[in-house]
Write a structure and sequence with these properties.
13 strands; elongated
């Protein structure tokens, strides 16, 4: 099933507040974890692309393991690098600060985000191979899986064309992480952006164990069909509600309903629709081994997807949508 809604974007950005009601969204604060690599530059470029100059803020943190004991030349080079990225943001009207700090970004970046009230952590991805990244983890994926703040992982430069193409992954259950993903997306949308809203149904099937437990009830097939139809109708209603939230901020939306493997359909939707950033609330496999063995949409986006991804694993507060 596919519905298309097209509207014209206004200058006013609205979003769900944490009680589920639409209110004016204040300025966004981005915390960008950087090193001295091209991937850091790509992450900063992404913030320049999505942030609103004149209102939004950015903070750059360059984590180094031994600040205070390094050669003067290395420190000077690092300071120059940070200053150059600061200038990139400020030249776009984004109030920006930068610092070189000791620590490990995998654990310390989220702590700083909480302390400084950041709305979104941003990091570049070095793009290690799927197996290597799954087995040993990476800085970006470790940050994303364990942060209590939303995390944007940027793999490649965002396009320079007007408007970005977002994929909002709805879990079909109005779960808290899914609602938090919707709330964040509504806060970063800008004029000319387009949203694709996808939900993937896991249809109930008649298994041998079900037949055994029900004594091969001849009505089982009809019951399963009724349950699947009911779930599909409920999910369609939820997608309609999500579309209404985007329409209230005059954003064009396409809804996509599929059944089957969520990972496959989400990755396919990213490719088929030229998605720039996918936004997903993860139910959170918290260990690399669990993610590797069981898989998840968020894990697939991080390790197999080509687009940037925003992951929300542990929302700070419960978000309840108001119909």
């Amino acid at each position: 099933h596919c519905l298309m809604h097209t509207c014209v974007m206004s200058d006013c950005i609205l979003t769900n507040s944490f009680d589920g009601r639409l209110t004016l969204r204040g300025p966004m604060k981005y915390l960008i974890g950087i090193d001295q690599s091209d991937h850091a530059r790509i992450a900063v470029d992404a913030v320049v692309r999505i942030a609103r100059g004149g209102t939004d803020e950015a903070e750059l943190l360059h984590f180094r393991p031994s600040v205070g004991t390094e050669p003067v030349e290395a420190v000077t080079e690092a300071r120059d690098w940070v200053a150059g990225l600061e200038n990139l943001c400020t030249s776009s009207g984004i109030k920006t600060s930068g610092a070189i700090v000791s620590g490990d970004p995998r654990t310390d970046l989220n702590a700083v985000a909480l302390e400084h009230g950041a709305d979104l952590i941003v990091t570049g991805s070095r793009g290690t191979g799927t197996l290597q990244s799954a087995m040993f983890g990476s800085v970006s994926s470790t940050i994303a899986y364990h942060a209590t703040k939303p995390v944007l992982v940027v793999k490649a430069p965002l396009p320079s064309r007007p408007g970005l193409r977002y994929l909002y992954c709805h879990d079909g259950m109005c779960g808290n992480t899914s609602n938090a993903a919707l709330d964040l997306l509504l806060g970063i949308l800008r004029p000319n952006d387009v949203v694709f809203c996808i939900a993937v149904l896991k249809e109930l099937e008649i298994t041998a164990s079900m037949q055994f437990l029900t004594g091969c009830d001849p009505n089982m097939g009809e019951l399963v069909r009724d349950i699947n139809e009911s779930n599909a109708a409920r999910t369609q209603d939820e997608l309609t509600w999500c579309c209404q939230q985007f329409e209230k901020v005059n954003i064009g939306v396409t809804t996509i309903m599929k059944s089957g493997d969520p990972k496959t359909h989400v990755l396919d939707a990213c490719v088929a629709n030229g998605i720039d950033i996918a936004v997903v609330g993860s139910r959170g496999a918290h260990s690399t081994l669990q993610s590797l063995m069981m898989g998840s949409v968020s894990h697939a986006l991080l390790h197999s997807g080509e687009c940037a991804a925003v992951l929300i694993v542990k929302p700070e507060r419960k978000i309840v949508p108001v119909p």
